[in-house]
Amino acid sequence: MTDKMKRTADPAAEAMMAKAGECEVGTAYDRHESQGKRCPFGEAGTCCRICEMGPCRISKKNPRGICGANAATVASRHLIRQVAAGVAAHSDHGHDIVKTLLMTARGESQGYEIKGEQRLHEIAKEWDIETAGRTKEAIAEELALAAMNEFNQQEGEIHYPAARAPEATVKDWRRNGLIPVGIEHEIVETLHRTHEGVDAEYKNILMHGLRTSMGDGWAGAMLATDLGDILFGTPEPVRSEVNLGVLKADEVNIVVHGHEPTLSEMVVAASRDPELLELAKSHGAKGIMVGGICCTANEILMRQGAPVVGNFLHQELAIATGAVDVMLVDVQCIIPAVIEHAGRFHTKVITTSKKAHIPGAEHIQFEESKALDIAKDIVRRAVENFPNRGPVDIPPYRNDLVAGFTVANTFTHLGGRYRSSFRPLNDGIISGRLRGVAAVIGCNTVKKTQDDSHLKMVKEFLKNDVLVIMTGCAATACAKAGLLQPEAAAEYAGEGLKEICEAVGIPPVLHFGSCVDNSRILVALCEMIKEGGLGEKLSDLPIAGAAPEAMCEKAIAIGFYCVASGAFVNYAPSMRIQGSEDVTRFLTEDVEAITGGKFSFEEDPIEAAHLMMEHMDKKRAALKLRPLMYAKPFLAVTEASAGREVSEEELEAVAASQAEGHYGGGHSCGGKKV
Ligand code: MSK
Fold it and tell me: What is the average pLDDT value for the chain, to the nearest integer?
């Protein structure tokens, strides 16, 4: 980051940064600057610190480390260790959800119930679990035990790829050995392969990275989403608010931060407890506000409509408002610096996971068997801390948003007039109204202006008729700017996208949930293929993904499983591989011949969006779809599919179909002459 670079695109963050930076610890941006120029070997991925003879730095002058490993070996080994760490994080989260479901089924948890009974039946069917005449608890117990097995299975393959993905994609995966045996199996093998003196062949190493990553999107994260929906209920579209302005000057503010929904769901429930509300009143507060930061925010937003306080770089800023009575954290994305900020105000930071202690924080060990009691205890502490507040300074910025989209409800519940299917989406793409779909996901990073790349990229997609799906802190970034409201279509969307949004009644940017809910996007892609007209493999689809402000190893893992699944993915700032031409070429070119997907590492969000749209246009041409109705093509090759005039008969058939309440048949053009 240069001195001239703006730190944030968010006015609320801008208002709080100076105040948050007043203390010795400063903000993440201050600490980024004090770190100075980074070691070029570390940046390029050519510093090897795997064995105790090193560290070794690979350069033109010294092209091999002590053991003889070259730049490609070093960069690929370190990269897939990062993939494994990312997979572990999402999967361990998934494991906790599986455990909570199992305990709930057995009556061993407190405060939880199986809220998503219909989803339980649907998923049990996919797992060949008998449902007839059985209680929901019996079904859930069998499902949870089967799901547990995904983590440490030692033979065969994980369940979801063959159960959910298109046959042609599964065939490719099997031919290339990309379906994991088990989640942990591949993580363990990653650590072994990359140990000193084992795998030295960069392609072999990277292929294992792709295999390992599949255990995230198609197992650990997918289980977290599915079993979370069973336990807490499947999200439905919900309106809420976002940004620091959701904090209340006259209420107790509890900010839940991290990733897992297990405790935060209970805290939301406890905040509605009449006794605790009375207690709040007796301490001078009008109520109790529970809002979130990072993906815990997305979990309680999607299912409870709880407001979102902010994304990753908001954690210090929220405390600097002086209005946070308790910041409750579980796992992932919690920076230790929050403690120093909390020390300047009255905020109590409470850690709750045995896996994540922070020096200086209070620790209350979360246990599923006493979840509601623990949640009530934490809410009580927040209420009792309310009178200790000093002056508060809440920036007056907040925006409305709609969240809670899932594979099931996106094109069914909202478009009630139409039959339940992905037909409207497929038809929109086939007819050329929509160019394709972009999934924009991931974090914020101090290497970029907070939110800026998300906003620029997403606006570029909208104006070029690309429907955008978002998760994680990326979704929060766009929500803060008002892009997650149906009204945003009128302001930002191109003609084609606007027509679809108005017809179906959705915002042009769909909030699909937390980081583990990227698995919902994978399932949506499978549904698009199933619906017909867009090819046979996931890699045939005119779709692309991006993490424009990527920050952590989980983002790398997500990028890897998306590429393994056949997607074009722009990842920025670049992964640490630039020191090896071989590794860079494999990930940006060669891998396409294997999975149909590949990476690009374009830093500029607009340029990156153009690369992604070129990719969509290439796929449209390969599918021989109609030319785009309104948007301009990004690739001359789309002309190859031009000139397919729609006959009057076809137009009439489409009009008749729409009159019957259908959005249109397989190749409808929606009544517009193209
Ligand atoms: S929380 S992983 S900063 S998206 Fe999922 Fe945000 Fe990235 Fe954490």
Answer: 92
444 Cα nearest atom in ligand 1:
3
- The answer to whether residue 422 scores a pLDDT higher than 90 is no
Residue (of 619, 210, 301) closest to 437 by Cα position: 619
| Residues β-bridged to residue 349 | 327
Q: What three-state secondary structure class fits 666?
A: coil
pLDDT digits (tens, 9 = 90+) for 242-270: 999 999 999 999 999 999 999 999 999 99
Can you read off the two tokens belonging to residue 461?
Answer: 């997609």
pLDDT digits (tens, 9 = 90+) for 528-578: 999 999 999 999 999 999 999 999 999 999 999 999 999 999 999 999 999
Quote the CA–CA distance of 407 and 349 in Å, as a whole number. Answer: 36
Q: Is the CB of 473 under 6 A from ligand 1?
A: yes
For the chain, how far is it from start to end, CA to CA, in angstroms? 46
| CA 339 to ligand 1 centroid distance, Å | 19
User: Is any atom of ligand 1 closer than 6 Å to the C-beta of 297?
Assistant: no
Per DSSP bridges, beta strands 47-48 and 56-57 are antiparallel
Regarding the beta carbon of 294 and ligand 1, being less than 6 Å apart is answered yes
Cα of 296 vs centre of ligand 1, distance in Å, is: 10
- Domains within the chain, CATH numbers bracketed: 11-57 (no CATH), 71-232 (1.20.1270.30), 244-388 (3.40.50.2030), 402-629 (3.40.50.2030), 633-674 (no CATH)
Half-sphere exposure of 621 (CA within 13 A, CB side): 15
SS3 content of the chain, % helix, strand, coil (to 5): 50, 10, 40
CA distance 73 to 50: 11
- SS3 of residue 238 by DSSP: strand
Residue in the block written with tokens 């099997």: 174
Question: What is the reported pLDDT for 4?
Answer: 65
For residue 238, is pLDDT > 90? yes
Burial of 673 (0-12, 13-18, 19+ CB in 10 A): exposed
SS3 285: coil
Does the pLDDT value for residue 188 go beyond 80? yes
Average pLDDT over residues 624-649: 65
**515 in contact with ligand 1, CB cutoff 6 A:** yes
The Cα 404–Cα 230 span in angstroms is: 15
C-alpha count within 13 angstroms, C-beta hemisphere, residue 376: 13
Whether residue 533 contacts residue 527, with contact meaning beta carbons closer than 8 Å, is answered with no
Distance CA 558, CA 563 (A): 9
Query: CA 398, CA 282: separation in Å to the nearest integer?
Result: 28
Name the percent of the chain lying above pLDDT 70: 92
